[in-house]
Amino acid sequence: MNPLTDIQTFVRQIAAPDGYPLSATVYQSTAPEAVLIIAPAVAAPQTLYRHFAAFMAGQGVDCITFDYRGTANSLAKNSPYRIQLEDWGKQDIETIIRLARTSYADKTPVHLLGHSIGGQLLGLAPSSKELSRIVHIAVSAPYWRRWPLKMSLKMLLLGKAIIPLLSAFRAQFPSNVLGLGKINVPSSATRQWARWMSRPEYLFDPVFKLDLTGYQQLDQPLLAIGFSDDELAPPINIDALLDQFPEAQITREQIDVPGLGVGPAGHAGFFKARFQDSLWQKVADWLMR
Fold first, then answer.
1. C-alpha–C-alpha distance, residues 255 and 118, integer Å
2. Could you report how far apart the first and last alpha carbons of the chain are, in Å?
């Protein structure tokens, strides 16, 4: 079954607090009981999530997807690539939470699903404390030393050589060409990401001088899902990230992907329609409790 069938969608253009234009898509259910924001991974366009968003709309949950500033359809005409990575949280995720809160009745629950960096950045959005429930999909603190040796060396090479070299003299980092994502992203963002990965505490290291108070305030139910075949988000890095949500009511699940018998998940395969009857339904049921 194609989950996009009979689901109405419309595109919104909305300005972040600093004026940067963002593109969002709303997937409408016939009688929404809740709203789910999907915060994307690095180099992942909002179209990656369209089938999952449509499925959730079919479950009575309106979905809002969006592109981060400097990527895909959220690209300013003036100075489009001068991006600070934390602004994806402070400005962009914040903007979409505000959009959801003002577009629906006060008693409509607003949830957020963060994929990879979408979950990492959540606490930087001041309005994140207003969310009802949070889902993490493959969300971790990717410090290079926490991987097994072979993968650790790959991540070290990525952070210390590949990213700095390929982002030094260009506005956009070629994520798509290198197989690191579906779209290119601003080089300023990838350089910053590499610096975060060089620290055990990742973006939470005091050296980066970010306002982290929001993470201490998040006391909502949080479902954190990892996958046995996801090399990019091993359990040790997922658990390190969850340590930064000390007040959240955490439910931690590590999925034995071969046991599902429907194919690989990896870092982004959760959003493939083959997981509709298993993992998608699990998330929908958990959100509607």
1. 20
2. 25
Q: How confident is the model at residue 274 (pLDDT cuts 50, 70, 90)?
A: very high
Q: Given this model, what pLDDT does residue 181 score?
A: 87
pLDDT number for residue 82:
84
**CATH code assigned at 275:** 3.40.50.1820
Beta carbons of 35 and 100 less than 8 angstroms apart:
yes
Answer whether residue 217 is part of any domain: yes
Distance, CA of 234 to CA of 169 (rounded, Å): 32
Assigned domain for 38 exists: yes
User: Is it the case that residue 261 has pLDDT exceeding 80?
Assistant: yes
Is residue 113 predicted with pLDDT exceeding 80? yes
Tell whether 192 is covered by a domain: no
Query: With 80 as the cut, is the pLDDT of residue 157 above it?
Result: yes
Domain that holds residue 94: 8-141+211-287
Cα-atom radius of gyration of the chain, to the nearest Å?
Answer: 18
Place of tokens 């509709």: 276
Q: Indicate the number of domains in the chain.
A: 1
Strands (E), the chain: 8-15, 21-28, 34-39, 61-66, 110-115, 134-137, 172-173, 185-186, 221-227, 249-255
